């Protein structure tokens, strides 16, 4: 009797696969039920083993799929992911398996060859393209094979119209299209545009959809019934049949990087997918990442440009407002308040950006300088007025608000500084009767609340919008004519290697929300560093020029994208355990002359949920070298006693250095 052997990936935090035996032949990419540590678990067949292993193997308990759920291309990509991010292979497979199929259930396979009709509604085609759009579309329509292309389009330049036309091109060829957005909140407006162009047979795939909805999209995409899928990170490997092109909207957006658990970049993964499937990929943005700009410069990526807004206007530049000698009211300068008054008089809307939610970020005693801090994190507590609680933004713990100072018993306790909530309350008083709309994590928690807020913005005439980064992302607010940026100074002065890239993108994105309908938009930056070289350079609103200069410096300094970086992070209840472990890494890792390890460094947030945090910055001149070095460290660390006392992980291509 024939016995077959297979390597199975099991969703556990171990970087290996396990060999099982089976009396039947199974296709690679199928799910099976296997016994592992006395439990039945769902695993994925990743490889057929040709020879009988020289160790004991257990029988596979059940074959769950008649047809593999992952094709051979997918398996190549998943192995690349596990290797590049040095993440356990079983967890990688699990991440890209729809939640329903993580359970031991059989699939209900859709009947194949469903003919679905897609036709662009002709009434929408009445939109005539301008010259730039025609030229860009021409470039994109002619991409062939693995052919990445940047679509650089200033805000309001009509990128979405280009996406729609490009999609039409591929549908006509019988191909399907995957469109990625960085955040769930951006799916509805794109969905609306696609539905009104192509009808409602469009799949929306993201983590707020139920497991059942996601599974349904997944099966319909694989069967070929769905030809358009719009989604976030989790949709990158959506198994669209006959995939023709991938469109990555807002490619620069840091939300494409998962910041917990499996820290992969969905943007980079989608590029890998395009490469493996040999198809074009379009990276759309008003503020290209330095990584993408470098590859355009080196002619590895093509480029299409939309430099003018579709209505012919240019996005506004910035006015810097020196606040060193200003009296601020809840963080807002007198000049800014006057500008708001004028804008409201003209029945227009104002957008106020502040990178901080809650009422006040600091609750302190004016007698002894005691400050309210979280007992398990190195974090100051933020006062939330609506909740009447002090909240830790690291671990979400809520504390009562003491009436007397716990240190000196004085009752002179004060709230310092402003967040969105305080500004909202202040504006409600100052501009009585004006609609004030707050957009942040706290006001959008409830399902459907974001949609309600956006509808309110569109319904209102004069209004003030107050919000965090959420305000800066891709939304279209046609009535906003004035933007005010309250605290970008920390971004300008931050020592992080990528802070300039982040802050320049943020400022340009905020200004992109302003003055979209008419040509008299204005953006004020309140700053204590009005002479800052970078602020002066950005003032014209010319992102590309700024970014190219930034890129030149990166090249001279050999910083990413001209080198590769990983953070090695450790956490433990005792700081010395972190330090000992990271010192051991320094002692043992084999570094070539172009590699370096800087650390141990206490992380900026040095304590979180009761654990101390430290990290080392590992740099190499290429991604391949970095990958080798990391593998070397992982092998070495397996035998150290220091390793057992810490939690540790690598963050490859980190975005967050805190
Ligand atoms: Zn005190
Ligand atoms: Zn905390």
From TrEMBL:
<keyword id="KW-0547">Nucleotide-binding</keyword>
<dbReference type="GO" id="GO:0016887">
    <property type="term" value="F:ATP hydrolysis activity"/>
</dbReference>
<feature type="binding site">
    <location>
        <position position="368"/>
    </location>
    <ligand>
        <name>Zn(2+) 1</name>
    </ligand>
</feature>
<dbReference type="InterPro" id="IPR041236">
    <property type="entry name" value="PriA_C"/>
</dbReference>
<keyword id="KW-0413">Isomerase</keyword>
<dbReference type="GO" id="GO:0006270">
    <property type="term" value="P:DNA replication initiation"/>
</dbReference>
<keyword id="KW-0639">Primosome</keyword>
<protein>
    <recommendedName>
        <fullName>Replication restart protein PriA</fullName>
        <ecNumber>5.6.2.4</ecNumber>
    </recommendedName>
</protein>
<dbReference type="InterPro" id="IPR014001">
    <property type="entry name" value="Helicase_ATP-bd"/>
</dbReference>
<comment type="similarity">
    <text>Belongs to the helicase family. PriA subfamily.</text>
</comment>
<dbReference type="InterPro" id="IPR042115">
    <property type="entry name" value="PriA_3primeBD_sf"/>
</dbReference>
<dbReference type="GO" id="GO:0003677">
    <property type="term" value="F:DNA binding"/>
</dbReference>
<keyword id="KW-0235">DNA replication</keyword>
<keyword id="KW-0479">Metal-binding</keyword>
<dbReference type="InterPro" id="IPR040498">
    <property type="entry name" value="PriA_CRR"/>
</dbReference>
<dbReference type="Pfam" id="PF17764">
    <property type="entry name" value="PriA_3primeBD"/>
</dbReference>
<dbReference type="GO" id="GO:0043138">
    <property type="term" value="F:3'-5' DNA helicase activity"/>
</dbReference>
<dbReference type="InterPro" id="IPR027417">
    <property type="entry name" value="P-loop_NTPase"/>
</dbReference>
<keyword id="KW-0862">Zinc</keyword>
<dbReference type="Pfam" id="PF00270">
    <property type="entry name" value="DEAD"/>
</dbReference>
<feature type="domain" description="Helicase ATP-binding">
    <location>
        <begin position="140"/>
        <end position="306"/>
    </location>
</feature>
<feature type="domain" description="Helicase C-terminal">
    <location>
        <begin position="400"/>
        <end position="559"/>
    </location>
</feature>
<dbReference type="InterPro" id="IPR001650">
    <property type="entry name" value="Helicase_C-like"/>
</dbReference>
<keyword id="KW-0067">ATP-binding</keyword>
<dbReference type="InterPro" id="IPR011545">
    <property type="entry name" value="DEAD/DEAH_box_helicase_dom"/>
</dbReference>
<feature type="binding site">
    <location>
        <position position="405"/>
    </location>
    <ligand>
        <name>Zn(2+) 1</name>
    </ligand>
</feature>
<dbReference type="GO" id="GO:0006269">
    <property type="term" value="P:DNA replication, synthesis of primer"/>
</dbReference>
<feature type="binding site">
    <location>
        <position position="374"/>
    </location>
    <ligand>
        <name>Zn(2+) 2</name>
    </ligand>
</feature>
<dbReference type="Pfam" id="PF18074">
    <property type="entry name" value="PriA_C"/>
</dbReference>
<dbReference type="GO" id="GO:0008270">
    <property type="term" value="F:zinc ion binding"/>
</dbReference>
<feature type="binding site">
    <location>
        <position position="395"/>
    </location>
    <ligand>
        <name>Zn(2+) 2</name>
    </ligand>
</feature>
<keyword id="KW-0347">Helicase</keyword>
<comment type="subunit">
    <text>Component of the replication restart primosome.</text>
</comment>
<comment type="function">
    <text>Initiates the restart of stalled replication forks, which reloads the replicative helicase on sites other than the origin of replication. Recognizes and binds to abandoned replication forks and remodels them to uncover a helicase loading site. Promotes assembly of the primosome at these replication forks.</text>
</comment>
<feature type="binding site">
    <location>
        <position position="408"/>
    </location>
    <ligand>
        <name>Zn(2+) 1</name>
    </ligand>
</feature>
<dbReference type="Pfam" id="PF00271">
    <property type="entry name" value="Helicase_C"/>
</dbReference>
<keyword id="KW-0378">Hydrolase</keyword>
<feature type="binding site">
    <location>
        <position position="365"/>
    </location>
    <ligand>
        <name>Zn(2+) 1</name>
    </ligand>
</feature>
<dbReference type="GO" id="GO:0005524">
    <property type="term" value="F:ATP binding"/>
</dbReference>
<dbReference type="GO" id="GO:0006310">
    <property type="term" value="P:DNA recombination"/>
</dbReference>
<dbReference type="GO" id="GO:1990077">
    <property type="term" value="C:primosome complex"/>
</dbReference>
<feature type="binding site">
    <location>
        <position position="377"/>
    </location>
    <ligand>
        <name>Zn(2+) 2</name>
    </ligand>
</feature>
């Amino acid at each position: 009797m024939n016995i077959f052997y297979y390597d199975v990936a099991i969703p556990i935090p171990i970087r290996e696969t396990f060999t099982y035996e089976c009396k039947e032949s199974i296709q690679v990419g199928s799910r099976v039920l296997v016994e592992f540590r006395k439990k039945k678990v769902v695993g994925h067949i990743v490889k057929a083993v040709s020879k009988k292993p020289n160790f004991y193997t257990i029988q596979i308990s059940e074959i769950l799929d008649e047809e593999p759920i992952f094709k051979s291309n997918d398996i190549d990509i998943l192995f690349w992911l596990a290797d590049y991010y040095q993440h356990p292979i079983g967890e990688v497979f699990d991440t890209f398996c729809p939640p329903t199929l993580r359970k031991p259930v059989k699939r209900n396979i859709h009947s194949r060859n469903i003919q679905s009709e897609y036709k662009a509604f002709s009434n929408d085609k009445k939109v005539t393209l301008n010259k730039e759009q025609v030229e860009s579309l021409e470039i994109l329509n002619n991409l062939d094979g693995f052919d990445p292309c940047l679509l650089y389009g200033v805000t309001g330049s009509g990128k979405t119209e280009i996406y729609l036309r490009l999609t039409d091109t591929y549908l006509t060829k019988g191909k399907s299209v995957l469109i990625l957005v960085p955040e769930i909140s951006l799916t509805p407006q794109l969905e609306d545009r696609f539905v009104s162009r192509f009808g409602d047979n469009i799949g929306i795939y993201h983590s707020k959809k139920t497991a059942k909805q996601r599974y349904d999209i997944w099966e319909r995409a694989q069967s070929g019934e769905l030809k358009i899928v719009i989604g976030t990170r989790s949709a990158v490997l959506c198994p669209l049949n006959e995939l023709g092109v991938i469109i990555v909207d807002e490619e620069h957006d840091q939300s494409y990087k998962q910041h917990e658990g499996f820290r992969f970049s969905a943007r980079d993964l989608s590029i890998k997918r395009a490469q493996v499937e040999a198809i074009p990929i379009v990276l759309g943005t008003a503020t290209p990442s330095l990584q993408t700009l470098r590859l355009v410069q080196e002619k590895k990526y093509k480029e299409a440009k939309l430099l003018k807004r579709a209505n012919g206007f240019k996005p506004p530049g910035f006015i810097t407002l020196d606040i060193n000698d200003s009296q601020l009211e809840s963080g807002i300068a007198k000049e800014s308040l006057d500008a708001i008054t004028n804008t409201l008089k003209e029945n227009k809307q104002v957008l106020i950006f502040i990178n901080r939610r809650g009422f006040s970020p600091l609750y302190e005693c004016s007698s002894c300088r005691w400050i309210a801090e979280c007992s398990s994190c190195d974090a100051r507590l933020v006062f939330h007025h609506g909740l009447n609680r002090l909240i830790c933004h690291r671990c979400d713990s809520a504390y009562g608000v003491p009436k007397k100072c716990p240190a000196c018993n004085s009752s002179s306790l004060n709230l310092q500084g402003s967040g969105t909530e305080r500004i909202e309350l202040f504006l409600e008083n100052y501009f009585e009767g004006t609609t004030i709309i707050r957009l942040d994590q706290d006001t959008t928690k409830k399902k459907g609340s974001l949609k309600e807020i956006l509808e309110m913005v569109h319904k209102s005439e004069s209004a003030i919008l107050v919000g965090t980064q959420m305000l800066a992302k891709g939304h279209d607010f046609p009535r906003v004519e004035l933007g005010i940026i309250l605290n970008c100074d920390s971004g300008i002065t931050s020592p992080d290697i990528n802070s300039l890239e982040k802050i320049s993108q943020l400022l340009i994105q905020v200004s992109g929300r302003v003055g979209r309908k008419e040509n008299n938009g204005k953006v004020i930056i309140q700053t204590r560093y009005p002479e800052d070289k970078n602020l002066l350079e950005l003032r014209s609103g010319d992102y590309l020029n700024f970014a190219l200069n930034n890129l030149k410096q990166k090249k001279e300094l050999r910083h990413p994208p001209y080198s590769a970086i990983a953070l090695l992070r450790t956490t433990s209840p005792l700081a010395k355990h972190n330090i000992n472990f990271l010192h051991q890494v320094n002692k043992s890792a084999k570094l070539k002359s172009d590699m370096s390890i800087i650390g141990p460094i206490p992380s900026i947030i040095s304590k979180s949920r009761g654990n101390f945090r430290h990290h080392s910055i590992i740099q190499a001149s290429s991604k391949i070298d970095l990958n080798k070095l990391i593998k070397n460290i992982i092998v070495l660390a397996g035998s150290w006693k220091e390793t057992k006392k810490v939690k540790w992980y690598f963050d490859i291509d980190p975005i967050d250095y805190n």
